[in-house]
Design a protein that fits this description.
2-enoyl-CoA Hydratase, Chain A, domain 1; 272 residues; alpha/beta; 44% helix; 12 helices; Lyase 2-enoyl-coa Hydratase, Chain  A, domain 2; ClpP/crotonase-like_dom_sf; Enoyl-CoA_hydra_C; catalytic activity; Enoyl-CoA hydratase; six-stranded mixed β-sheet
Length: 272
């Protein structure tokens, strides 16, 4: 994997760099609150796809440059000028672009930690909700303005919100366009934690440090089982857990965990 990937230097980019076992991915378009153009979305798909196959990675950090996380997909740029696309353009294109980003964040067998300052809007909000752990400043704002802008919700919002905060609050956000502060998002269970702006970096690094030194295979399998369990019966979930257990018990980290327990010391996991 290259150390840096540029989506579009003039109009915004997605950059990624390795920090030990952590891949730090930055949405870098601060002049537009890091709203995502087509090339940035394509860059995210490529980065996350590569990360999924990189055995040396143990965690992913997703963040925005500047004072905001992400103002969503740049619909203004996507609908400005040029010939009108033929009917069915969204149905053909979006499953391989914006939808694929959300699926990758939610399903990649690496823990994804998202840090949110300022605005997390539309697809930007759903990116944060799809992450395994999102830490936000108390004054951050989560907003799903789809209906307010005249179109129906997308990027996974109708799947993510009811599962995280229930149908009633999902309606408030999706049908009424209610803005939710970082503090309220944490109280609702929409995100993992809200902290003061000054504490955001430290709180994020604490999580990343824990995952970067954890049993990566077991964490990935647990993430997969949690996702599977949201649409499965108890019996199906038990079977899924059993296969995960079979795999994780064959790892070096499992053996290290047992040995550390016997020796009454902290384990030193290698992520394998």
């Amino acid at each position: 994997m290259s150390n840096e990937t540029d989506a579009d230097d003039a109009e915004g980019s997605v950059t990624a760099h390795r920090d030990g076992a952590v891949l730090r991915v930055t949405l870098d378009r601060p002049a537009r609150r890091n709203s995502l153009n087509h090339l940035m979305i394509d860059a995210l798909v490529d980065l996350l796809t590569d990360a999924a196959a990189d055995d040396s990675l143990r965690a992913i950090h997703l963040r925005g440059a500047g004072e905001d996380f992400c103002a969503g997909a740049d619909w203004v740029a996507a609908n400005s000028g040029g010939p009108r696309p033929r009917t069915g353009n969204l149905v053909r294109r979006i499953p391989h672009a914006a939808h694929r980003v959300i699926e990758l964040v939610a399903s990649i067998q690496l823990p994804v930690v998202c840090s949110v300052r300022g605005w997390a809007v539309g697809m930007g909000c759903n990116l944060a909700l799809a992450a395994d752990f999102t830490v936000a400043s108390t004054d951050a704002v989560f907003w799903e303005p789809f209906v307010d802008r005249g179109f129906s919700p997308d990027s996974g919002s109708t799947w993510l919100l009811p599962r995280l905060v229930g149908v009633a609050r999902a309606r408030r956000m999706l049908l009424l366009g209610e803005k939710v502060s970082g503090a309220d998002a944490a109280d609702w269970g929409l995100i993992h934690q809200a902290v003061s702006p000054a504490e955001l970096d430290d709180a994020t690094e604490m999580l990343l440090g824990r995952f970067a030194s954890g049993p990566t295979v077991a964490i990935g399998l647990a993430k997969q089982a949690l996702s599977f369990g949201q649409h499965a019966s108890l019996s199906q979930s038990l079977t899924q857990e059993l296969y995960g257990l079979e795999l994780s018990c064959r790892t070096t980290d499992f053996k290290e965990g047992l040995e550390a327990f016997r020796q009454r010391r902290a384990p030193k996991y290698e992520g394998r």
